[in-house]
Each structure stands twice: as C-alpha cells, then as structure tokens.
Design goal:
alpha+beta; Immunoglobulin-like; about 30% strand; globular
Length: about 500
C-alpha cells in the first residue's frame, strides 16, 4: 500500500510538471508569435497596410518618415554662436509684446530682463519634405533643444518688481518650415515657421524667484506655465505661424503667407450633466469658459447650486483651420478667490460640414493631458450644438479687419490700465460677421448683406489666480458673455437659409 501510494504520488507529480511545461510552452510560443507579428508590422510599408486593410484602410494613417541630417547638426554646432549673437536681441524684442498680450491679471506688468539662448545648439533628429507646391517647399523638422538657456522675467506683483528666472530650458516639437521660393538670390523670399500640434510640443524649465521663493506667491508657477503654453499655442501652433521676410519681400507675398480667417463657428452651450460637486456645503456654481484661440475666450453665465445646469447660450468664434483647430470647453465652479476646475474637454472641428448644425455630447476630464494626468472619477459631460459657416472672400476681409480692430482696442485698453492683459477680457462689446443670402434666379445665391460690428456692454472678469477678490470692469470689448448686441449700422441680422442670426439668449 505504501509503495502504491508513493508510485501514485510520483505519477501525479509528473503529470503536474508535464502540464505546467505544456502551458509554459504555449505561452512562450504565443509571445514569440506576438513579437514576430509586431516586428513584421514595424517593417510594413503603406502598400502592405493597404493590402491588409483593404477598403477599410484609414485615411489618417501617414507613412511620412524623417531623413537623418547629421550634416545639418554639424553645421549648427559651428554656427550656433553666430546665430545666438544675431538673433537674441531680435527674439527678445519679438517676445516682449507677446508677454504683455498674454500676461495674467494677477501680474501688473511683465518684461523680459534677460534672454540668453545658451551655448548648446538644438538638435534636429530628422527632416521630411511634407509636400511640394508651386513656388513653395514645405519641410517638417523633428526639433529638440535641451540647452543651457537662461531667461529672466520682471513681474510686477503687488506693487513690486519680482525677478523670475526660467533656467534649464528644453523644447521638444515637430516644426514646420515653409520656404517661399524666389527667382533672385538667395532664392528664398520668405520663411514661414510653425509648431505642429501633433505630437504636442513640450516645454520644460526650472522656475526660480531670484532672492525669494515661488511659494511666497500663491499660484505663481501655474500662472507662468499657463502664460508659456498659451502664448506658444496661440501664436506658433499650426495653423498659426510666424512669417519671416528675407530681403525686400513684396507685401502681397507676406500677406498671402499669413494666417487668414476661414469661417465662423457658432456654438450653443446647451447643458452639462452629472457634474462633480466641489463644495463641502451645497452644490457647485458652474459656468463654461470656451475658446478656439486662447486670446479670444468667452464665458457663459453662472448657474448657482446646480450639478445639471442648462445654459442654452450662443457664442461665435472665428476659425482659421478646421483641419487642426478644436473648440475647448472648460467647466468651472465659481468661488470666492480661485474658481475650481470641474472638467475640461475638446471638440475637433475636422468633421464639421458647412452650414450644417450638429449636437455633440462630450465627457469631461480633469486635464486634456490624459496620459500624464490620471483621473478615474466621473466628472460628467457637456452638450453643445455646433454650426460652421465658411467665409466668402468679402466676409473674410470684413472679419479680418474687425479682428484687427479688436486687437488694437485691447492693446489700448491694456495700455490705459483698464485691464490687466489682453486675455483678461471675458465680457464687453462684440463683433459679429453675419451673412445674408437671397435666392436669385434658379437657386442661385447672392450676398445681400454682411453684418457689421456690433458693440454691446458686458462684464470683464479678471482672472483670480492671486486669490484676490472678484474684479469687474466694463469695456467696449469683444463679447464673451452672451449679451444681446445692438448693430451700429443697418438692420439686425436675420437667419436666412440656415445661416447665422444675431439673437438674444
């Protein structure tokens, strides 16, 4: 009996070991097959993928590859000292107006005391020719700069000048450069430089208050981070760009290369549902801040003590490029001091059809950077209706003239000390570029009127990052609340054939 038990136990043990080995072999073979499949996919080209996907091949997949340019990096090493000497002062002069334009309300003044690019040149990991057009070459560069640059800002805070140092600067992005070709030496009449939105650019730095601590100024780090990211996104991120003329470039070429308004986006903020409560007593007081460009933010009214608010407010935004731009929706909780973030989301404008209204419901997130910022909780959702209208040439000219006037008005108000910065205006006058169409003959369409500027009075809410009280100022500025405008000339705009109309909400 004992020997029989031992023999049976031995057989059971052998069977268990054999089963374990068999399962291990299966897992090992599965891993090998997976690795082999991944390797084969990594080696596949566009033709291979089209064979695999057939008619369901996604149009957004691109196989553009970067070519190594070691020779260019070697040239940068040699010429970098001369580049620094030639460009530092020019870059400083170009940055100072941008700092003032995007200056947060908690800072009374912001100047650039020191700007040094450092001794370490940037690294260009690769270059690809995106497309060739008549008279132009479009080139994308995989740009990395982790140098020893040094920037010192002078910030006016609470009546004193506070030197803020940004050191160990690093910048990673894909940069698009457009060469406008010319028949004359040096064969280039202008350059267009922009930062591509995908992959998202990354800026890192160490923030230091010279002679003090960043902790002594609540919210200072967040303000500087928002300033840096907002200014780069709104001024350099494609489709926005910088046009650099080379030599005596004709004004019409520079104008043609510049960014133009392509259409108007009408947004109806309908409702939010199941918002996260940020209050210990009672419920949050939500409102929505929305924008396409950071420089032109707009804001709904505040609905007190409600986690399922309904606004049904209408706003309009100029759009430069529906292919790359998105509508940003920030839901906030109004509070004494600093407003709390309830959630944020974006709506891509890529799939909008001209003059066709759609309703979209989007989930809210803690941050748009869902990779680095994890948020497992439910923050609710927001519903909006969108209507995009492409501009005609006449509408485009009027819209661009009005926008130019708005920016100049903001600059005058800022210089007069009425508002802390160009981004502070979230209420005030409004410009509206509307359109009227009437049927002519057999289904033809004819422009019979274009809405001209309308000026209303609104409320300017200064940003409250410095934990100060709420500051309200009135201005004849760009409308960010949905105040009902009064046209300066002509009759109010009416809705014809589903186009925009001016209405009170």
């Amino acid at each position: 009996m004992v020997l029989g038990g031992l023999f049976f136990g031995f057989l059971v043990g052998v069977a268990i070991m054999a089963g374990f080995k068999y399962l291990s072999d299966l897992r090992r073979k599965a891993r090998i097959r997976k690795i082999a499949g991944i390797y084969l996919l990594s080696q596949a080209d566009e033709v291979d993928f089209k064979k695999l996907c057939g008619s369901s091949y996604p149009n957004h997949i691109s196989f553009l590859t970067f070519d190594k340019v070691n020779w260019l990096n070697e040239m940068l090493v040699k010429f970098w000292p001369f580049v620094v000497e030639a460009t530092e002062q020019r870059v400083k002069l170009a940055l100072e107006p941008m700092l003032e334009m995007y200056r947060p309300a908690g800072i009374s003044s912001l100047t650039l005391e020191k700007f040094h690019l450092g001794k370490v040149p940037p690294q260009i990991d690769g270059v690809r020719v995106q497309r060739l057009q008549k008279g132009q070459v479009h080139m994308d560069m995989d740009f990395k700069w982790g140098g020893d640059g040094d920037v010192v800002l002078n910030a006016g805070v609470m009546g004193t000048k506070l030197p803020i140092q940004l050191k160990k600067l690093s910048f990673f992005s894909t940069i698009r450069v457009i060469f406008q070709l010319s028949d004359e030496i040096p064969c280039i009449s202008a350059l267009v430089v922009a930062v591509l939105p995908n992959p998202k650019f990354q800026i890192d730095y160490k923030l230091k208050v010279i002679g003090g601590s960043t902790g002594s100024i609540p919210g200072l780090g967040d303000m500087i981070e928002d300033l840096v990211n907002s200014s780069v996104s709104d001024q350099l991120e494609w489709p926005h760009r910088i046009v650099l003329p080379v030599g005596d470039t004709p004004a019409d070429i520079i104008s043609e290369l510049g960014l133009k308004l392509q259409g108007k986006l009408r947004v109806t903020v309908v409702r939010a549902t199941n918002l996260k409560n940020m209050e210990k007593i009672g419920k949050s007081d939500p409102y929505v801040r929305l924008y396409v460009r950071v420089l032109f933010k707009k804001k709904t009214k505040v609905i007190d003590n409600n986690l399922n608010p309904e606004w049904n407010e209408v706003f309009e935004f100029d759009v430069e490029d529906t292919e790359t731009q998105s509508l940003v929706l920030q839901v906030k909780d109004e509070d004494i001091g600093t407003d709390k973030e309830l959630g944020i989301t974006t709506v891509s404008l890529h799939d909008l059809k001209p003059d066709t209204e759609i309703e979209v419901t989007k989930r809210l997130f803690k941050s748009l950077d869902t990779v680095r910022v994890k948020d497992k909780g439910d923050r609710g959702s927001i519903t909006v209706r969108l209507l995009y209208h492409p501009y005609t040439k006449e509408e485009q000219d009027i819209a661009m003239a009005i926008e130019k006037g708005e920016l100049e008005a903001k600059e005058e108000l800022k210089n007069a000390g009425v508002v802390g910065g160009a981004m502070d205006a979230v209420g005030g006058g409004v410009k509206m570029v509307g359109t009227g169409f009437s049927t002519v003959g057999s289904g033809g369409a004819k422009l019979v009127g274009t809405g001209v500027g309308a000026v209303g009075s609104g409320v300017v809410r200064a940003s409250r990052m410095m934990s100060s009280g709420v500051k309200r100022l009135s201005s004849n500025h760009r409308l960010v609340n949905s105040a009902s405008p009064t046209p300066l000339t002509g009759s109010p705009m009416r809705e014809t054939n589903g186009l925009f109309k001016s209405k009170e909400v």
